[in-house]
Amino acid sequence: MIAALICVISLATFLQFFVSYSRSILASSRKVQLSDRVREVTGIPSQEIAADDFQRIVQLVRLCPERGDDQTEIRAVGTYYGLLHVLGQICRSLIPSVAAWTEQERRSCSYFAAVALDRRISYSRDLLTQQAGDRS
Amino acid sequence: MQLGPVDYGLWLIGFLLEAYVVVCSLFRKDFLRYIPLNIYMLAVALVTWGQYHFIHTYGLNSPSYFYYYYYSDSLLCILMYLVIIHFYQEVFVEMKVSRYIRGAAALLLAATAFFSYIVVRQNQEHMTTRFVVELEQNINFVVVVLTYLLWGAILKLRETRTRLIQLVLALGVAFSATAGSYALRNLFPDSSYLFRWVPPVMGVWLPLAWAYTLTKVPEDARLATARLVARAR
Questions:
Q1: What ipTM was predicted for this assembly?
Q2: Does the distance separating the beta carbons of B141 and A9 come in below 8 Å?
């Protein structure tokens, strides 16, 4: 009985802590404005990014040279996005308000990925400039 | 039971990350600011190294390893209490209640130690795996409760320091997952192999998340806690 109680409470607190932790990572990207360059690359005209764009943007992120300092956060947000996707599918017909919330959260994940892509593109350009400078 | 390459891999990654947290704090001159956290990470790294030594010298199923594991785990538990108390003091710093927090923490530690002593004394004739799993489950659950209360205080007091928020949340994720896995092992002893991966994975997660926070999040970064609470519309 006690073990079952501890199990339920622990799993509930785990979910709450994990969601809050992921949102704390996402929050850092919300203030960042996307550049015209990244909108051009991703084909997204407006500031608003669709929830389903996440996987496509992450694939573009993987094509860029690694900066070496954003892998952990991209993986954590990727896991969060996956969980939201599953939750959204389950709640779509059962609890529409939760499904709407997961949609909004997934949009934040896509925005985060676009910010990561923007940073990687800037990094690649800096690398190219540096290499050109070294040659000349 | 034999340890495989995955067990050794997790051990090595955990050990390196724990050492990284301490070295990173030293280089960034944050060692004293987060001294309980650094002492805890240092102790976990040493205990991990010790576990490896005991397994190779005496074997995984030896009484020596058994006693080493549970004595060192008790020590780590006390250090974890100190880390949480430190976080409490940081959250309540402006209310100047450090003295009361220290007093309450000492009382709680003494109560937990006394409770554990009674439980161990009653079960010393049969220190079975089942009993040990139950004890671990209870100890980890106390940490979860303390962390949850701390998270509640952070939300209530509208704490905005991103570093502190992320350090506490990472701790909450690690200990709630660990306590949950021990409870599941207790409930379903026949399927315990399914959940035995959770504590080692969380042993990697905690130093990884702390290393990320200490490396990437500046001390002066601020975050509105209202943004972190999930609310369905």
A1: 0.84
A2: yes
